[in-house]
Design goal:
Blueprint: H1 2-21, E1 28-31, E2 37-40, H2 42-48, H3 50-57, E3 68-70, H4 76-88, H5 93-109, H6 113-125, H7 132-141, H8 145-157, H9 159-162, H10 166-174, H11 176-221, E4 228-229, H12 244-259, H13 269-284, H14 296-304, H15 318-342, H16 345-348, E5 361-362
Parallel strand pairs: 1-3
Antiparallel strand pairs: 1-2, 4-5
């Protein structure tokens, strides 16, 4: 009785569509797994699917008055929704929610790309931890890369929870190759995250060094709070600059550098750090003759010669050290350019303040 009602409802749906469009009577039947026949028009099915077109036009060994197409392996309602889409090119949210998996399989088998795209989007929006393994297997079989990637990302981000589901346990028993594929994807994702995190940390370091170079030039040219050029009166109150968090640390380092007694023998780590900052500034400074940073032009000559200020054993691995240093200079200069481009146009166009004077600190 239930099958009879479904059969009649299917015939009524197709007849209503045919009546609205003034179509002729259906000339074939679609046979479902339940044995229920859905009437349809061969021209409509052939125009919507090249696979159905080949099936319809294929010559039959046994001639009969009734034409049939079998769509087995999926529920009757899913086949009915599929036939309705071939007629109207529309799929309701209710059908997508109930039969999305079956419609994706049918759209892939019968080459209906519009429905396949709709199913891929709908299933991707409804992904959950409980069904992600099943949908992943289907996306892999139906060649749906977008849906496959969404499933993989969800698996990677929630692997511990998904590992406890029945779908994952079934996958481990019956598809070890896909399990290995998932684990490799998770490992590659974690590696990319580590590389990205490391690159961000390096970029942050280059930005900090670029900011330190600006602060060093600012201190030696204009002065800031407690440190400034020797020809400047530090008794006059000078407020902190916009980069005071970096500038304050650099001022403390300069104060130590000016009073440290171990600096001559090269035994002070903080003084070596100050030498490195001087060297970095000299490497990126484009106006060494006018620059007020101490040893700006002289450091370049020392570096091109023996580099004794920066390396206690200059003859060991000097080529490797120089290559690493050039790479550091390029990275800091790139960070400086990127930072300057991020500033407002008015600030970028401000002229650079350069004053002739004695290159020393007033501490």
């Amino acid at each position: 009785m239930v099958q009879l009602k479904k059969k009649l409802s299917g015939e009524m749906k197709v007849k209503s569509i045919a009546g609205a469009c003034e179509m002729p009577e259906p000339d074939l039947y679609v046979i479902t797994s339940a044995g229920i026949r859905i009437p349809a028009h061969s021209k409509i099915l052939a125009s919507a699917s090249p696979v159905l077109e080949n099936i319809i036009e294929r010559p039959k060994k046994r001639r009969s008055s009734e034409r049939k197409i079998s769509m087995l392996g999926v529920p009757y309602d899913a086949v009915s929704a599929f036939i309705q889409f071939l007629y109207s090119s529309k799929c309701s949210e209710e059908h997508m929610e109930k039969y999305g998996i079956h419609l994706l399989a049918l759209s892939h088998v019968y080459l209906v790309p519009q429905l396949k795209h709709r199913c891929t989007r709908g299933l991707g929006e409804g992904l959950m931890k409980e069904n992600v393994v099943d949908i992943l297997q289907l996306a892999r079989m139906c060649d749906a890369p977008d849906l496959y990637l969404k499933c993989m990302k969800l698996l990677s981000n929630n692997f511990k929870a998904i590992e406890e589901t029945e779908g994952w346990k079934f996958l481990q028993k019956h598809d070890p190759y896909l399990e290995l594929e998932i684990l490799q994807f998770i490992d590659e994702t974690e590696s990319r995250k580590r590389r990205t995190r490391r690159l961000r940390e390096d970029q942050s370091l280059y930005v900090q060094l670029s900011e330190a170079m600006d602060c060093l030039e600012h201190i030696c040219t204009e002065g800031c709070t407690s440190v400034g050029p020797c020809d400047m009166d530090l008794n006059e109150h000078k407020g902190p600059c916009s980069k005071f968090s970096t500038c304050q640390g650099l001022q403390l380092l300069i104060n130590h550098f000016g009073t440290c007694k171990k600096r001559v023998n090269g035994g002070c780590v903080r003084c070596k750090r100050m030498w490195q900052l001087f060297r970095l500034h000299s490497s990126i400074c484009d106006q060494p003759d006018e620059c007020r940073v101490p040893l700006c032009s002289k450091v370049i000559v020392i570096f091109d010669g023996s580099a004794r200020y920066f390396c206690s054993r200059p003859m060991i691995c000097r080529r490797g050290i120089d290559m690493r240093w050039r790479l550091l200079v390029r990275k800091v200069m790139s960070a400086k350019i990127i930072t300057s481009l991020a500033l407002p146009k008015r600030k970028r166009e401000e002229p650079r303040i350069t004053n002739q004077g004695m290159r020393s600190f007033n501490i």
